[in-house]
Design brief:
6-stranded parallel β-sheet; 5-stranded parallel β-sheet; globular
Length: 418
């Protein structure tokens, strides 16, 4: 089939390449000309798609990238994988709206459009479908098919592959579900059909709300356990020995990325708008998560104070700037807020992260250095925010005069654990 994957980022590119690998003719559509130029040159900027895989599907002729909307005509299935950020707590759906209009203008009778971008329950049927109908002059279910299938991208996850992660699929009617399931059956090892788009939309938000609530729970517990004289990490290890009824989550400087700090608030916003009541669990979890960098900074202030040093003028080295272990993604990483707060207090902040691509260093609000023995030893405080494999932890223990370990990976008289 001829497939359009609209949006060639962390979600769209892996899908587009995989669809081409299984034999579809795939157009990777994106409005970012620089991104399209990189893809056309065979350079992948997404860690889950190697440049070698990208070049292979380019050479086969089964994949090409474009910004030209005229190239989209005649598609059998189009998948929308565009960003859905929050703006002041309100979902910004402008990318979905613009992309849907573009695809609607190219929509032929019998074609299918699938939304993968994370959104609130009802968006597929209440927003996307009406735009498609207006742009195409076709009726949903009769003239074209549609549905929702939430992305489950986990950048850098070596345990669960892209195609090995079960894929939830839905359609606006039985025929739509049948076609959408058939498409994804050829790409994923397992598909999970549900009764309609609202269920699939809520399932995605439930997955990430579950994680945010539990991460926020252990984070708040970490801030309370230390004053009680209890090692929260040891308590978590003990609780995790229970073979049922407990899922292990661990503290950290805050949950980042494109999902956890964002997706649950879509659900909170929808409930507030439609039902007029707050989603208290999400609101509380979001508040705890947003304030974890403040707690980290307070611990650094206290740790330096114990050593007779003010933050102002102190040299502080932040290790691990991405939001996730062994990942390359800086989006919504708590490291940015930690650096901002410390800089505001007069600290001389530097960052080290071997995983950050050179092209992304401009996104940092601090100088980027190597985590060398000399750099570690020269710092008044070293903060392990993310314990990437490439860090030499024993070297850090040996050379750092004072460490705040946010990941419980270090030990020694010079180490304090979050």
């Amino acid at each position: 089939m001829q497939i359009v994957v609209a949006g060639q980022g962390y979600v769209g590119l892996p899908l587009a390449v995989r669809a081409a690998e299984v034999g579809h003719r795939v157009i990777g559509y994106d409005v970012d000309a620089h991104r399209v130029d990189q893809l056309t040159a065979g350079h992948s900027y997404v860690e889950d798609v190697t440049s070698a895989r990208l070049r292979a599907v380019l050479d086969s002729g089964d994949y090409w990238a474009t910004t030209d909307t005229a190239a989209l005509a005649g598609y059998d299935i189009a998948v929308i994988t565009v960003p859905t950020p929050l703006r002041d707590g309100v979902p910004d759906l402008s990318c979905i709206e613009n992309c849907t209009r573009t695809l609607g203008a190219c929509l032929r009778p019998g074609a299918t459009v699938v939304l993968e971008s994370t959104t609130y329950p009802g968006c597929t049927e209440e927003l996307m479908v009406p735009i498609l109908e207006k742009a195409s002059c076709l009726r949903a279910g009769e003239g074209f098919l549609a549905g929702f299938s939430p992305e489950r991208i986990a950048p850098g996850n070596k345990r669960f592959s892209f195609d090995g992660t079960p894929k939830v699929v839905s359609g606006i009617d039985a025929r739509s579900l049948d076609v959408i399931k058939g498409f994804y059956d050829g790409i994923f090892q397992t598909t999970v059909p549900v009764s309609g788009p609202k269920v699939a939309e809520l399932a995605k938000l439930l997955e990430n709300t579950f994680r945010l609530v539990n991460i926020s729970l252990v984070n708040e517990l970490a801030t309370l356990a230390a004053p009680l004289g209890v090692n929260v990490w040891e308590a978590i290890d003990a609780a995790a020995t229970k073979p049922f009824g407990f899922t292990r989550f661990t503290p950290g400087p805050g949950a980042g990325g494109h999902c956890l700090p964002v997706d649950p608030l879509f659900l909170s916003w929808k409930i507030e708008q439609e039902l007029g009541i707050p989603f208290r669990f999400v609101d509380l979890a979001d508040d705890v998560n947003r304030h974890m960098p403040d707690y980290v900074v307070q611990r650094i202030v206290d740790g330096l104070g114990k050593r007779g040093l003010p933050v102002e003028g102190s040299r502080i080295l932040l290790l691990g700037l991405t939001y996730k272990y062994n990942a390359t993604d800086l989006r919504n990483s708590p490291s940015a807020r930690v650096a901002e707060l410390l800089t505001g207090l007069g600290g001389e902040v530097r960052g080290a992260d071997p995983n950050v691509p050179q092209s992304d260093t401009r996104k940092l609000n601090m100088p980027l250095v190597d985590a060398s023995p000399q750099e570690v030893a020269a710092a008044d405080a070293v903060v392990l925010l993310m314990d990437h494999t490439l860090f030499d932890l024993s070297m850090i223990e040996m050379n750092a005069p004072y460490v705040l370990d946010c990941r419980n990976r270090l030990s020694g008289a010079n180490v304090e654990t979050l």
